[in-house]
Write a structure and sequence with these properties.
Elements: H1 12-15, H2 19-32, E1 38-40, H3 43-50, H4 59-71, E2 75-80, E3 83-88, H5 91-94, E4 112-113, E5 116-117, E6 127-128, H6 133-136, E7 138-139
Antiparallel strand pairs: 1-3, 2-3, 4-7, 5-6
């Protein structure tokens, strides 16, 4: 279960979005992202998972949404071993109420710190950075930010 914090609605960027883009933003957080706020970039998957396969939403529109959100530095698009990934930049700001989060099966972008809490004793690795996730998790503002060129790599999105 994902949290949508009320403060998000006060963000001028969010308020400037079209209804389609707002739905995409909610969908990225609630449907596409794993417990670390990342997912494989796939415009077709986005159409099906976020827009229920609505044929009125085109793959080109989904690609444009990814690009627009990356330009606004709300997401980081990056490549790892020829796969395109997305990281939601302020993930821990949005998910600070969560009680449990699992490790990601996807690679983290450069400069990102994961936080997880699988519960006591599960997999002999119960937590990492969990109690300090709002400060310890995500990108480090002083050392690495999504604005730096080595992290904020907007990729060309290829259809399968």
């Amino acid at each position: 279960m994902r949290n949508i914090v009320q403060e998000m609605h006060k963000d001028l960027w969010y308020r400037s979005l079209s209804i389609l883009e707002k739905l995409a933003w909610y969908g990225m957080i609630c449907q596409l992202a794993d417990d670390q706020g990342r997912f494989l970039v796939d415009p077709i998957e986005m159409r099906h998972m976020v827009f229920s396969g609505n044929q009125d939403v085109t793959t080109d529109q989904a690609e444009e949404i990814f690009r627009k959100f990356a330009e606004a530095r709300k997401i980081v698009l990056y490549v790892h071993k020829n796969d395109n990934y997305c990281q939601i930049v302020n993930w821990w700001k949005y998910q600070f109420h969560a009680k449990f989060m699992a490790k990601s099966t996807y690679p983290a972008p450069a400069g990102w710190t994961d936080c997880w809490n699988s519960g006591v004793g599960i997999h002999n690795d119960p937590s990492k950075n969990w109690k300090k996730r709002e400060k310890a998790g995500g990108f480090k503002a002083k050392t690495h930010s999504p604005a730096s060129s080595s992290v904020n790599q907007t990729v060309d999105i290829q259809e399968p």
